[in-house]
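batch job 7 of whatever, protein = Biotin synthase
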Amino acid sequence: MSATATRHDWTLADVRALFELPFNDLLFQAQTVHRQHFDPNRVQVSTLLSIKTGACPEDCKYCPQSGHYNTGLDKEKLMEVEKVLKAAEEAKAIGSTRFCMGAAWKHPSAKDMPYVLQMVKGVKALGLETCMTLGKLDREQTQALAEAGLDYYNHNLDTSPEYYGNIITTRTYADRLETLSYVRDAGMKICSGGILGMGESVDDRAGLLIQLANLPEHPESVPINMLVKVKGTPLAEEKDVDPFDFIRTLAVARIMMPKSHVRLSAGREQMNEQMQSLAFFAGANSIFYGEKLLTTGNPQAEKDMLLFKRLGIKPEEREEHDDEVHQAAIEQALIEQKNSALFYDAASA
Ligand code: SF4
């Protein structure tokens, strides 16, 4: 078997064997595969906006937005279309190429769909790629989103089918797979991944990646999240994931889905710069950027660009104009670093 072949028939034994490789051998293999399909010094950047926050009827044990847990999160109704478009304009101005809109819903209601479709059309008209995560979809909703111009639909599988019931009881794994199949049938791209650090075993991590890699087509985007432990959620006291196990999982994902963008996703704020750079070496080539407040002075975004510069990484799909915007952000961040000795701050958040 060639390490670089695009396969859809992964077995647990195959994937266990990858997880059991010595760390350096695994990373070498992942980096070799990565270089066959991608420029190793390019990372795709997306911006994420919550368009409807909190009071979600689902009971995902990791999620502060679930209405089942008291996390003190401020609930917000569906955001006005104009505000969403303004945020998208700001995301574009700081260099994002994809704008992801997330709503804490079990599924979109008939009442909300027209607004959601207006958001897709408006963001698309700004020249950005569009992505949404709205929960379970039926065929008609999926088709309407595709016709409005939605490029990507995010719908995570979260973990293995075997472990899923420990994390979520209000929907089934089969529901998730059904929505993913509707998205594919409607011609949209899939963003689907999972979360590490929820008490799952290595076999569960393997099981998640097998589900994703054995889909008829690999998801174009595979977010691998590190659990962010939020007080009030049932997983608030979970044990930390060993950082090397996290990197291993990214590397295995890269080998199994060689042409997909593997996204270093939630939890990145808790990773120091060394760990993030190791993640890029393992094959991660996508991040969320400026995901909290979309203002041009977003310090996290500037810090990300500074890390890219130190690593010689350039954002993917960047126009000349955007490079200039990033250059200005980097220069500003360098000035601030000199003032605050930020270089010596191990925490990259
Ligand atoms: S469906 Fe999404 S928003 Fe709702 S509880 Fe689960 S992860 Fe949170």
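notes: The first helix runs from residue 12 to 19.
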